[in-house]
Amino acid sequence: DGGITQSPKYLFRKEGQNVTLSCEQNLNHDAMYWYRQDPGQGLRLIYYSQIVNDFQKGDIAEGYSVSREKKESFPLTVTSAQKNPTAFYLCASSIAGGRRDTEAFFGQGTRLTVV
Amino acid sequence: GDSVTQMEGPVTLSEEAFLTINCTYTATGYPSLFWYVQYPGEGLQLLLKATKADDKGSNKGFEATYRKETTSFHLEKGSVQVSDSAVYFCALGAGTALIFGKGTTLSVSS
Fold first, then answer.
1. Do A106 and B45 touch (CB under 8 A)?
2. Which of A19, A69, B22, B44 has the CB geometry, 3.0–4.6 Å to A106, for a possible disulfide?
3. Are strands B11-14 and B104-109 parallel, antiparallel or unpaired?
4. CA distance A66 to chain B (A)
């Protein structure tokens, strides 16, 4: 089945450590996205990539980094510089970036907790 | 900049009641509009969409009409079920990434 796979589903991190969240898609989509979800805040865009080897900062990129070396993969690293990393992280993809009419398909999310 | 505003929840209804969740938007140009649903602990699923003014999106008994004159895309369902309990997000597509509202929690009791 085609879809987006995020792993792990739950992740615990000690303060001061970097951690990488995995996102893989087999939909052959060009564009991929990372959103952060906090209670009552909706979804806020962290980074997006419209094509391999290119990515752009979203609204809340500070303390995060990404790479897009392969079309199917868009890992997100939460660095120690992120002041409040505990949240639910959602990865998404769409068939093409830069188009207003294309919907995004979402993974099941990773819940990150700093302990 | 572009933005989406949803009615605040939670919305609490009895089974078979009529549902409306309000959504208004601010955008330059001609955005597309979407409704997504999120069940507990899961990602978002597309519920319906509309890509131009006066289009009506519909799916699983839910409907929403793209109203350019009132910049609105209200979600409606004639008779809700317990299984409709979830968080609903209105979203706007303007060319880069989708912009989401803050979500509205719907709780349906039997």
1. yes
2. B44
3. parallel
4. 16
